[in-house]
Amino acid sequence: MHDEPLHPDLDRRADDVAGQVIQWRRHLHRYPELPNRESGTERLVAEHLRSLGLDEVRTGVAGHGVVGVLRGGLPGDRVIALRADCDALPVPDLCGADFASEAVDEDYPGGPFPVSHACGHDGHTAMLMGAATVLAGVREELPGTVLFLFQPAEEGPPVDEKGGAREMLAQGACADPVPTMAFGMHVTPYPKGYLGYRVGNQYGASCMVRIVVKGKQVHGSTPWQGVDPMPPTGAIITGIGQLYRQLDAFDPVTVTIGHIEDVGRFNIIGESVTLWGTVRCIDEADMSDVQKRLTTLADHTAQAYHCTATVEFLQDVPAVHNSAPWVEAALPTFRRVVGDDKVVETGATLGYDDVSEFVNAYGGLYVMLGVQDAELNDDGVPVPVEGGRGIVVNHNPGFYLDDDTLVTGVRLHAHVAYDHLTGALTTRE
Ligand SMILES: [Zn+2]
Ligand SMILES: [Zn+2]
Q1: Of 86, 85, 84, 88, nearest to 101 (Cα)?
Q2: Which ligand is nearest to the CA of 185?
Q3: List of the chain residues with pLDDT < 50
């Protein structure tokens, strides 16, 4: 791909907004909001987009989502959707920065919870706000339309609420204009400024599982007069550890029970036990099989102890498909933006991201942006650099990201958008 005269201009404009991106990110970091409660973030984003004079700024999309539409000044049919997720997590903030979060959400279902941006969505939101500044600045030279998608509840809304990417689509976020490509990126513990991509599933398929094992409540001294739901619960968890052996070992699957709620007491056998967990599959074709086997396991194990089990699968998220043609089309752009040597293939992950709803529907890519004090060893695995802050994975209370790297994300958004609209980055004519 030859360089367009606008490319250096995009970079200059990204440099100009970089300081403000850091300010936005630090503000968001200090004031994080849990899924479906992102009202402050929504306000900040909407105010900014309006200040840029976008053609449309819609708020309240799927809760606190914001959609911005920027129509370019040149004729063109292509529509690039740039997506950032905006929500935080119910974990404490141990990142050590002076802008660390002290937020507590008192009213959240299941809470109160400490709240922090342990997944780095503060960075995603700030980078896309910066990209909006850059692209609005060159709007007269854009042959097509940019759709900005600021998405709430990527981490999953409270179990009784709707939310996230699927709900944004249901509410028409991409109905008009309809994207011809979707793009986004996730910050990750890779070396700063590196771009990681994977041909195939960048993220795995996921769902939440809730299993309610029911017995009969009774005093702890007379278990024979009731039915104890605790022993089958233990047996179900043990059985889950064997599920993977029933599936092709070359397509990784994990089933994790991360949380258990028991309603008993030390001397009371409770009526029920609720298990909360997650199923992850690299190959989403395995998902229904795992669900069937897990249901059989829970059902029959409970029966063996004269209990019942109800198994529900909630909040399913499809895998993120980065197809080979899209990767091939985008590599020249990626290499120009971050440098040839910093574009690397990543391994598979059983993490999930509901950006899949956008990428799978409209084509496009989701990639990883390295933001930590790391280097790649000979096997391409990130390892800590001496004197750095180490490698701290997303969702860890100590997760950190390097502010100075955010400008790279701004440039990526801007270059991918421009190259797509001009027809240099696409899989179709
Ligand atoms: Zn996350
Ligand atoms: Zn995330």
Answers
A1: 88
A2: 2
A3: none
